[in-house]
Write a structure and sequence with these properties.
alpha+beta; HIT family, subunit A; 8-stranded antiparallel sheet; 6 helices; 8 strands; binds zinc ion
């Protein structure tokens, strides 16, 4: 139909990510890949070059529904390939709140999954350092069923689309910036784990430009 228009994404008026995805306040052009339902952007507090967030265009509390959708994996696969060909193997993780304004969501209420190029196993480190969280093996497309409405942490050191195997911990208490602190400690940036104090804008804006160029090059190649 000629006058068909895609529905506007569902936005939450007070959400920083919703505003950003609508093109407002994106001060350093952080979004580097745009899909119909999802976008990839660099994290503003990136400790590691290439640190990317996958974000649904519709406001949601966590990513557990997205993990069961093929269009998410199509998008995530393209984003992961771009990050990996630019920066090396990615780790996937999420701290999924069960409701908005939880501490677990690292101050961002909008659902997002982290893809971070890491040279160590964050999954092994999390299990080793925080055994009281009772980690269980979990395929990513089973996160929703296994979390069962609880807040959760999920981490997988090998990205393998919807077949990704990782570790899940259901949380009894909200945990702030859990993975970020582990990454900072492991990479010797322990003093700068708090992204509110150390936004590391140069790392982030440099990564966004590189990833955007790489994603564009891949698109041209597959079109040729
Ligand atoms: Zn939002
Ligand atoms: Zn986060």
């Amino acid at each position: 139909m000629s006058n068909y228009r895609a529905p506007e994404p569902r936005h939450e008026p007070t959400c920083r990510f919703c505003a950003l995805l609508a093109g407002k306040n994106d001060t350093f052009d952080s979004v580097w890949l745009r899909g119909e339902h999802f976008q990839a952007m660099v994290s503003i507090g990136a400790l590691i070059p290439g640190w990317t967030l996958l974000v649904p265009r519709d406001h949601a509390t966590n990513m557990s529904d997205a993990y069961e959708r093929s269009e998410f994996w199509e998008f995530a696969g393209a984003a992961a390939e771009t990050v990996e060909s630019t920066y090396g193997q990615v780790t996937l993780f999420e701290h999924g709140p069960s409701h908005s304004a939880s501490l677990t969501g690292c101050g961002v209420d909008h659902a997002h999954t982290h893809l971070v190029p890491l040279r160590f196993s964050l999954e092994a480190l999390a299990r080793l350092e925080e055994p009281e969280l009772r980690w269980e093996d979990c395929r990513v497309d089973e996160v929703r069923a296994r979390a069962n409405g609880c807040e959760y942490l999920y981490v997988a050191s090998d990205f393998n689309g919807s077949s990704t195997q990782g570790s899940l911990a259901r949380l009894e208490q909200p945990t702030s910036q859990f993975f970020r602190k582990l990454i900072a400690r492991q990479t010797g940036l322990a003093a700068s784990w708090d992204y509110k104090l150390f936004p590391m804008l140069e790392v982030s804006s440099g990564s966004a430009a590189r990833l955007r160029a790489q994603a564009g090059a891949t698109e041209l190649e597959s079109a040729a």
